[in-house]
Amino acid sequence: MFKKKLLASASMLALASALTAQPATAQISNNAVKIGVLTDMSGQFSHESGAGSVTAVKMAVEDFGGSVLGKPIEVIYADHQNKPDVGAIKAREWYDSGVDMIAGLINSGVALSVTNVAKEKNRIAIINGSGSSKLTNEGCTPVSIHYAYDTYALATGTTKYLIKQKKLETWYFLTADYAFGQALEADATANIKANGGTVVGSTRYPMDTPDHSAYLLKAQASKAQVVALAGSGQGFINAVKSAQEFGITKGGQTIAGLLVWDTDIDALGLQQAQGMIMTSGYYWDRTPESRAWAKRFQKQMGRMPHMGDAGDYSSTMQYLKAIKAAGTDETGAVMAKLKSTPINDFFATNGKIREDGRMVHDMYVYQVKTPAESKYPWDYLTLKETIPAAQAYRPLSESSCYLVKK
Predict the structure, then answer these.
(1) What was the pLDDT predicted at 385?
(2) Residue-wise pLDDT tens digits, 347-382
(3) How crowded is residue 318: how many other Cβ atoms within 10 Å of its Cβ?
(4) What is the pTM of this model?
(5) What CA–CA distance (Å, rounded) separates 145 from 84?
(6) Closest Cα to residue 329, out of 20, 21, 31?
(7) Are strands 71-79 and 67-68 parallel, antiparallel or unpaired?
């Protein structure tokens, strides 16, 4: 009888222990996983983010099943107006009200301000729209991930290809005067010099300027073989159009877009964009898997996705899988799972999130097709080179991120 009571007591203790341990291994704060998409909904970068970012994140949530660990997944969004202070205020408000992860974050100035808030609040931020390599260098944090691309990878692909394959060695920069443009010029300059090229000059223009005439005249007068546009959004589109009007390419100079979105090519048209060399982390028509997802996205957005859209989907899916694997939405546990899980999907090949928060993956050098080469809508790019993940991004040996063990 005594033995039976002892066994019963032991069983009850084991059951009680299991029950009390359960919340620590399967716990969701506030009974929901909340994702906030902070993006440019109405400004000059809205075609590269905006509704596309929101749609991509919502698609990932829907494909995941709408819930994780038995709790619903909620998606909200807001316009940061391309103002770092507005982005930081909204991020603080969201994190304080229970948002677990902020996604999107186009505009590098905004992204850098938001990741600082994420670090302060111990919440997660995943960047797809912004490119500044500062985000995983001197601006790195233990809670932020830079996912789709960065200025180092863009510069590595385009500058090396034009110097080595096209023998174009002298460069002049037209640079958007904010965090992204500055980082892109700096990373491109380092790559140009490393590959035997020379920078003969540069001019910085206000991010929102509608008129690039004065800047392009300086570029034309420089006689540089390459006029490199270190900018994005509507400013980049306007600069390319003005360059064509000034006859820069007819005069023998090559226009290099250091960040070119598929939507930029669509806005310019192949007649103006043809021949341009660009580097990207994703092209919708590269594989059967990328095509299948792109067609689903197109049904909702009326256009094909670019690497920002695909990165928003892929990173959101990886985030939700990490929560499921960790059994919690607690920041440290989720980040540990994210950094220990390889990424291979329709977006990323050979993907891995490093200790500095950089998601390294294969990158691709493309050339924009001529109108005659394009056979169907959005058939814009020809693959020229694949850059392996290990070569595409800044090596950790050169990193100034405090999280990197030297």
Answers:
(1) 96
(2) 999 999 999 999 999 999 999 999 999 999 999 999
(3) 23
(4) 0.90
(5) 18
(6) 31
(7) antiparallel
Cβ contact 145:357 at 8 Å? yes
In one-letter notation, the amino acid at residue 144 is S
CA dist list (Å): 227 to 177, 212, 250: 16, 13, 13
Classify 242 as helix, strand or coil: helix
Q: What are the backbone dihedrals phi and psi of residue 166, each rounded to the nearest 5 degrees, phi first?
A: -105, -5
Strand partners, 283: none
Helix (H) or strand (E) holding 126: strand 124-127
**Is residue 201 a contact partner of residue 224, using CB atoms and an 8 Å limit?**
yes
CA dist., res. 243 & res. 236, Å (int) = 11
The 8 Å CB, 24+ separation contacts for 268-275 are 268/237, 268/240, 268/241, 270/368, 270/369, 270/370, 270/371, 270/374, 270/380, 271/371, 272/240, 272/241, 272/244, 273/240, 273/368, 273/380, 274/368, 274/369, 274/370, 274/371, 275/367, 275/368, 275/370
- Tell me the three state secondary structure of residue 238: helix
For the segment 161-173, the average pLDDT, to the nearest whole number, is 95
Q: Considering all CA atoms of the chain, what is the largest pairwise distance in Å, rounded to the nearest integer?
A: 101
CB neighbours (10 Å) of residue 98?
15
Burial group, residue 63, by CB count within 10 angstroms (0-12, 13-18, 19+)? middle
Q: Do 176 and 155 contact (CB within 8 A), yes or no?
A: no
Decide: 243 and 186 in contact? Cβ < 8 Å. no
| Residue 369 per-residue DSSP state | P
Phi-psi map region of 200: left, alpha, beta (phi>0 left; psi -120 to 50 alpha): alpha
Percent of the chain scored above 70 by pLDDT?
A: 93
Say if residues 349 and 362 touch (Cβ distance below 8 Å).
yes
Residue with tokens 């304080």: 96
Give strand pairing partners of 254: 226
Task: Tell me how far apart the alpha carbons of residues 227 and 220 are, in angstroms, rounded to a whole number.
Answer: 8
| Strands of 277-280's sheet in order across | 277-280, 363-368, 381-387
CA-CA distance, 124 to 95, in Å (whole number)? Answer: 9
Residue 26 pLDDT: 65
As a whole number of angstroms, the distance between CA 318 and CA 337 comes to 9
